[in-house]
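We treat protein structure as text, and this decision shapes the records that our systems exchange. Such a record has a labelled line for the sequence and another for the backbone structure tokens. The record that follows is passed on verbatim for readers who wish to inspect the format:
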Amino acid sequence: MNRRDFLRSAVAIAAAGAVGRTARAQGEPAAETPRPAPGALDPYSIGVISDIHTGMPWSRQQYRTGREYPWTPDAQKTLVGEILSLPNPPANVIGLGDISLAFSEPGDYKLAAEVLKPLTDAGIKVTLAMGNHDLRAEFLKYFPEYDRTTKVPGRFVSVVETPHADFILLDSLKEPDKRGSYKALESCELGDAQRKWLEATLPELKKPTFVCSHHTAGALKIDRLCAKAPMVAGYLHGHHHTWMTNYIYSGYSDHAKEVRMMGFPSFGLDHDVGWGLIRTTPGRAVLECRSRDHYFPTKRPDAERPRSWDAFVRDWNGRKIVFEFDSVPHV
């Protein structure tokens, strides 16, 4: 290589690096994974929904919730339709718990199955976690496969595999002692068997993995366990019905590790309303926040809108959250 060719190569490499750095600063993958043919499912994309809270009308509830949420079926169908209308819908959709409206009426899960059916009919694999408003026995009546596929007997623990990153869905449901009591739904737990499975699994991961649950890592007391694991790429949760971004960390030593934690909105019920679309590449994942509405639970969505509602939606819609991770485990 002569001097002129060397300089040309150096300039080209520098320009490519600048493009990569600019793309990364803007939250875009530096090296884009291939896009599938138009209309095909995207194996590199994962839809994230949470807090579906599907429920029967108040008049048909055995355990009364205290108020009606008549707008939820239409809101949920609209959001499902939005996922399906993407040029390349995600091959996987994961749900972060609270499928039932409140007290796990059998009809709640029947309605939830109907809401999600267009996704599965399109070939999308839907994988759900348990939340504090769920009951496993009632859930199994309409989603019986979870009893067979779980990684931890007695709990519904799933692993969703994708080309660049996997997703572990934990079961943080502590079933209530009293049915129909909101107070009895305030706790969460993993249980001994699930905690031992997680403690054994995380250090041995060979692929970037997102740990997912209805509750936060701090509430489950697994924040440092997750942050210490070399291949944990992020932590995803629901429960609060709001977009949230934070970090968990392994400690304060020189070799401490931080892991990004992300909270998701409700899939139609109240507060922030929307869903997330994650697209993965080697070494990173970019979450696009699909913020579609905001309404306070004491007011209907069609009420006179406070200016704050629209501001909340604008603040999050289209926002991109980047998870950087190693593609190979530390030695």
